Task: inverse folding
């Protein structure tokens, strides 16, 4: 279990004001990491920080909008000033969705998805990697992709395209940063109930999708904890450019 111990590490989680991001933060804190919670809704981050600290962990909240370069830069400067060191672990979790047929999607919705899901990942990873290399420290960047990057689904063209780009960007980042001891990997979750998809998964169409998952159920948040810790810790020290799929067998189901 020492391989999974994150004591002495600092982990940044974007989009940690709720859903998967908040769960990732709790998992990393329980493993011993000091967690930097980043999102636009500062009050939610502060509430989560209090929860983590009440449970014996360490947490620090910073307001960050991944769609704004100046916000990302200011957040990393604040982290450096407050904590005195760069983040060893970066979890790129911020994401949004805009559902529509691609022929009917507006330019505004397409750009909003790309700006958050793809450009935001690039901005945060760039800032984090530069901070680590300047300090001469190794680290781990974990990008949150999706099984929609691997198999098509209707009405989510922008979301799927952004996640497919993140999946491949992970490999390029891993290749470029390996020489610096910075590993870059991705998690591709299947269907887990979040603020984004909760109503859909509880609908009649969502239930039909559940029946197509080989395990016949959607995932539980706890089932992402192990893969996350593998990529964040020394247990995954020889992994870079990899994407771990956690989906109950969804992407390998028969056509």
Result:
């Amino acid at each position: 279990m020492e391989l999974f111990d994150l004591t002495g590490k600092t982990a940044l989680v974007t989009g940690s004001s709720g859903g998967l991001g908040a769960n990732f933060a709790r998992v990393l804190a329980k493993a011993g990491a000091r967690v930097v919670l980043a999102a636009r809704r500062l009050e939610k981050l502060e509430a989560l920080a209090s929860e983590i600290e009440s449970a014996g962990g360490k947490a620090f909240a910073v307001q960050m909008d991944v769609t704004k370069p100046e916000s990302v830069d200011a957040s990393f400067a604040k982290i450096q000033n407050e904590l005195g060191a760069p983040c060893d672990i970066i979890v790129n979790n911020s994401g949004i969705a805009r559902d529509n047929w691609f022929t009917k999607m507006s330019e505004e919705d397409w750009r909003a998805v790309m700006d958050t899901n793809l450009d935001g990942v690039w901005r945060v990873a760039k800032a984090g990697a530069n901070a680590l290399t300047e300090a001469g420290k190794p680290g781990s960047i974990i990008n949150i992709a999706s099984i929609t990057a691997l198999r098509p689904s209707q009405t989510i063209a922008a979301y799927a395209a952004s996640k497919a780009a993140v999946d491949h960007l992970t490999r390029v980042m891993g290749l470029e940063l390996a020489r610096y001891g910075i590993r870059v990997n991705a998690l591709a979750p299947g269907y887990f109930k979040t603020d984004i998809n909760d109503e859909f998964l509880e609908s009649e169409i969502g239930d039909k999708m559940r029946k197509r998952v080989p395990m016949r159920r959607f995932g539980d948040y706890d089932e992402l904890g192990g893969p996350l810790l593998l990529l964040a810790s020394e247990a995954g020290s020889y992994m870079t450019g990899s994407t771990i799929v956690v989906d109950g067998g969804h992407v390998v189901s028969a056509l």
In short: The mean pLDDT is 96.
